[in-house]
Amino acid sequence: AFAVMRLTKPTLFTNIPVTCEERDLPGNLFNQLMKDDPSTVKGAEALMLGEMLTLPQNFGNIFLGETFSSYISVHNDSNQVVKDILVKADLQTSSQRLNLSASSAAVAELKPDCCIDDVIHHEVKEIGTHILVCAVSYTTQTGEKMYFRKFFKFQVLKPLDVKTKFYNAETDEVFLEAQIQNITTSPMFMEKVSLEPSIMYNVAELNAIDTAGESESTFGSRTYLQPMDTRQYLYCLKPKQEFAEKAGVIKGVTVIGKLDIVWKTNLGERGRLQTSQLQRMAPGYGDVRLSLETIPDTVNLEEPFNITCKITNCSERTMDLVLEMCNTNSIHWCGVSGRQLGKLHPSSSLHLALTLLSSVQGLQSVSGLRLTDTFLKRTYEYDDIAQVCVISSKFKQES
Hints:
Residues 160-283 form the Trafficking protein particle complex subunit 13 middle domain. With 399 residues, the chain is mainly β. It has 3 helices and 33 strands. Strands 4, 6, 7, 8, 10 and 11 form a 6-stranded mixed sheet that branches. Strands 14, 18, 20, 21 and 22 form a 5-stranded antiparallel sheet that branches. The protein has a 4-stranded antiparallel sheet with strand order 12-13-19-15.
């Protein structure tokens, strides 16, 4: 005989409380019965959740990332001794077949009413149908070789729904928003959600707040995720210095990293998921990229202020650049327009300190920069580079 049982943690006993008012016919009978019930919580007998543990009554659900454990028992129901018993347990998935047997050696003999026990463990890494194939071969007293198999099919479900969004900052920083939803029927304790960056990036987690020198999670001290609830995690990725200096390296499709998620359910069952490598399409900057290194947030009306620009040659050829500054209705450039910037080699950069002033109050857009490559006679226009808040100097003094 062959028996297979799944090993899972027990669950808390639940009952349905039956109560009535004292003036009803049963009087205080139902309340007294609940108080005398040893499975209820003393002082809170009307709660459905008791304080006793019960063994699982069914196979239950198996989720991706959890560890599947099973108890296998082969029992000799006959009155004869059998020899050379070999027990084999394989797990068949949609893509592979795994041997889960603890030992591949045959047992010499098995006496009547005796059994061979084995416990198997497997971390589930695939979604879909799984088939546990258990096979037993043995030899009877007459020397006849016997063999039989049993199949146990179960479904592996997805516990979490993970969605990611990328946001490109004006600098080379990339913000990753990960939305994690609990799609099981029980709450989860989120033990760890971290981002393992690729070799090109450094990562900073933005899911904690420093309070009195201590880091406190934005989700509170008890990071439980209820069924169908969604939680958003935010990360900031910045290219490492050796990659940031090479303008042509971070272009096209780049690998950001992968999310590592660890959770616990019920009585401490642990699950872990790692996403595949997350990829994002790096923004195209063309042949020449212009970015702002420094710019003030607030400036005074009709007073000069300084900005610092960074010009990077993203092409594979040397450029000879000329800078032109065109005034707009509100922004006026201070300095000489049409000046030579010199030759700029591929993947190299130069910094420019520029001065301008605004003649209109409010939120104004910095526009009007033109770069011309004298080799190809090609002009690159840069408008809406950034915004500054222009206020009156009188208003600033009064405030």
